[in-house]
Amino acid sequence: MTRVDVHAWIGGYPWRHLPSHDAQSLRDAIEREAIAGAWVGHLPSAWWRDPAPGNRELASALAPHAGVLKPAPCIRPDWPRWRDELAFALDHGAPAVRAYPTLAGLGPDHAAWLELGHAVAEAGMVLVLTQRFEDMRQRHALDVAGDLTAAHVRALARGTRAHVVVGAANRTMIEETHFGLTAAEQERVWYDMSWLWGPPDDELAVLLTTIGANRFVEGSGWPLRLPEQLRAARELLPTAPERAEFVAAGTLVRLAQKTSSIAPPL
């Protein structure tokens, strides 16, 4: 199975210095871990009112790494002409787009939030979300936006046919989301394991037992976290049966594209 990091960024971070955050450094980091590619967002765009310039910067930075680093442009569905950004993502071969509803002040029941879910499903793309960037204890005093909530994800799963990856989710959020959905809705939501503890809590092992390895994909959160943690998470699993392969990124794309062929037009 080809390993792909579906939750990575390039670009600076507004709240602290990052020693490495360019495309070549990301490529070097994943190649050291035998990871074949990554879905890459533009980190600063998460805080910009208009993410369009960041999407252009992302595409330009990734162009020399085509085939390895694939863009996951940022969409803000309450901003004018946001559908142009979705079209831009499709034109550049993006397998996924990103959204940050809490940074934009969008609640789970905001009409634009569900409209984005419908549009992403119709486009046959995956929607990548991020619960948090840093632990609460690390955050700058000006970093006041709340974490992504389970209600945001459940609203998408219930109200649209979007395929969703939730990055940097903790065990509580994953359980609150997963067990609040029907079996059919659960099949369209996946999680990375970048914020799940190994020993002594063994959160990842517990979740692999209770909700299954088929709900997890590989995502590191680079450059805020390290790709090495993906290998560590596997090696620290307590027993061999739980060392199952996680879902491949290509599988997510194929499922999303299959859904787009049967999704009704907006």
Search tags:
TIM Barrel; 266 residues; 11 helices; three-stranded parallel sheet; 37% helix; 12% strand; four-stranded parallel sheet; alpha/beta
CATH topology: TIM Barrel
- The count of helical stretches stands at 11
CATH architecture level-2 label: Alpha-Beta Barrel
* The level-1 CATH class: Alpha Beta
| Helix content percent band | 25-40%
Category from helices, strands and their pairing? alpha/beta
Indicate the radius of gyration in whole angstroms: 17 Å
Percentage beta strand = 5-15%
Distance between the termini: 35 Å
What is the tally of beta strands? Answer: 7
Largest pleated sheet: 4 strands, parallel
Structure characterization notes:
It contains 11 helices and 7 strands. It has a single domain (4-260), classed as Alpha-Beta Barrel (TIM Barrel), CATH 3.20.20. The protein starts with a strand and ends in a 6-residue tail after the last helix. A 4-stranded parallel beta sheet has the order 4-5-6-7. The chain has a 3-stranded parallel beta sheet with strand order 1-2-3. It has 266 residues and is α/β, with parallel strands linked by helices.
